[in-house]
Amino acid sequence: MMMTPNNGSKQYTIAILGGGSFGTALSDISAQNGHQVKLWMRSEEQVKGINQDHINHRYLPDYTIHPSVQASTDIQATLSEADLVLIAIPSQSFRSVVQLAGNALEGKMVISTTKGIEPETFDLMSEILFEELASIRVGVLSGPNLAKEIVAKAVTATVIASEDAELCEIVQKVLHSDYFRVYSNHDVYGVELAGALKNIYAIVSGIGAAMGMGENTKSMLITRSLAEMSRFAVKLGADPMTFLGLAGVGDLVATCTSSLSRNFRVGYALGQGKSLTEAEAELGQVAEGVNTLRQVRQKAVELDVYMPIVEALHKVIFEDFDVSQLVKGMMLREQKTDVEFMVR
Ligand SMILES: NC(=O)c1ccc[n+]([C@@H]2O[C@H](COP(=O)([O-])OP(=O)(O)OC[C@H]3O[C@@H](n4cnc5c(N)ncnc54)[C@H](O)[C@@H]3O)[C@@H](O)[C@H]2O)c1
Ligand SMILES: O=P(O)(O)OC[C@H](O)CO
């Protein structure tokens, strides 16, 4: 497919922190659009792979990325001339990387693409950025964005959320191409929370898939997951309408139905009777949903939010309950209304 560089508009210097699947995919999109792209990663060997072979041998070995992407293990050099910074670091290491970057991030537009919640603090990544840095412009990017599909240039859309309308416009221009479309939203908390929460339900869907669930069950699960995650997010201050968009229902569908999703795969392995340790070891990559489940279940108890699917998954993963008994129990609960946030 012919790539059209970014409609002849301004070219930016973009720094990407994190050389896993998504950081690499974002580097490729940005470089395809003619921007100067610097990718920071920890491993010298992987830096060599990107700079010499244009391949991320560990995370995306089957794809060649744009040859202009320059990788480095030097975070300060990566950030020094950047106009825009995209962070794709798992949530448990996000704060430490922001601290390592330190002043080099000050004054810049910084976008989190991480879909998780910090253990212990219940902070979302945008909150960590505001806590750690004095003067930055913050955005979050989230949506149905399986990295392998993006590097294969499958037609994809995402959401940039920020209260800074100019930042949203710049990110839209920078990343937009004939295979990647960027929508904007001002509900930062909702977009970010949606990206984190859907990982829990992808694990549940993976378990269901391994157990041979049919289409009725799949639809029920996805729809009730959407109801549950929006109920929780609204309690925390998000806009329920965000959950009808790409960052909500869009990402939920992609992640709950694709075996490319690491969270779905962890669930699938659990559904085959493997332990969590075995499932995570087999994956060898980050599945954010396991930590998110712990955080969300604890918060739901604290805030008294009704989350039967989260409760059931917590019992299966951390309390050794039998899945089929739990499903029966859930089906026999009190009947509820279909849609909670009716306009009238
Ligand atoms: N892969 C996807 O399809 C995708 C899509 C959208 C969003 N995300 C989100 O992006 C985030 C990153 O995911 P990923 O898929 O790139 O993960 P990954 O497991 O493929 O890679 C994680 C990368 O972060 C690096 N890393 C971890 N801790 C680090 C530290 N302390 N310092 C420096 N580097 C560190 C690892 O070395 C690795 O390169 C996650 O929150 C994920 O939910 C992933
Ligand atoms: O592989 P997962 O489960 O982390 O999902 C990747 C992306 O978040 C899908 O949008």
From TrEMBL:
Its EC number is 1.1.1.94. It comes from the Bacteria. InterPro entries: 6-PGluconate_DH-like_C_sf, 6PGD_dom2, G3P_DH_NAD-dep, G3P_DH_NAD-dep_C, G3P_DH_NAD-dep_N, NAD(P)-bd_dom_sf. SUPFAM superfamilies: 6-phosphogluconate dehydrogenase C-terminal domain-like (SSF48179), NAD(P)-binding Rossmann-fold domains (SSF51735). One of its GO terms (molecular function) is glycerol-3-phosphate dehydrogenase (NAD+) activity. It holds the Pfam family NAD_Gly3P_dh_C. Keywords: Cytoplasm, Lipid biosynthesis, Lipid metabolism, NAD, NADP, Nucleotide-binding, Oxidoreductase, Phospholipid biosynthesis, Phospholipid metabolism. Residues 187-327 form the Glycerol-3-phosphate dehydrogenase NAD-dependent C-terminal domain. Substrate binds at residues 115, 262-263. NAD(+) binds at residues 18-23, 147, 262. Residues 14-167 form the Glycerol-3-phosphate dehydrogenase NAD-dependent N-terminal domain. The keyword Oxidoreductase applies. It catalyses: sn-glycerol 3-phosphate + NADP(+) = dihydroxyacetone phosphate + NADPH + H(+); sn-glycerol 3-phosphate + NAD(+) = dihydroxyacetone phosphate + NADH + H(+). Catalyzes the reduction of the glycolytic intermediate dihydroxyacetone phosphate (DHAP) to sn-glycerol 3-phosphate (G3P), the key precursor for phospholipid synthesis. Belongs to the NAD-dependent glycerol-3-phosphate dehydrogenase family. NCBIfam families: PRK00094.1-2, PRK00094.1-4, PRK00094.2-4. This is Glycerol-3-phosphate dehydrogenase [NAD(P)+]. It comes from Endozoicomonas numazuensis. The lineage of its organism: Bacteria, Pseudomonadati, Pseudomonadota, Gammaproteobacteria, Oceanospirillales. The gene is gpsA.
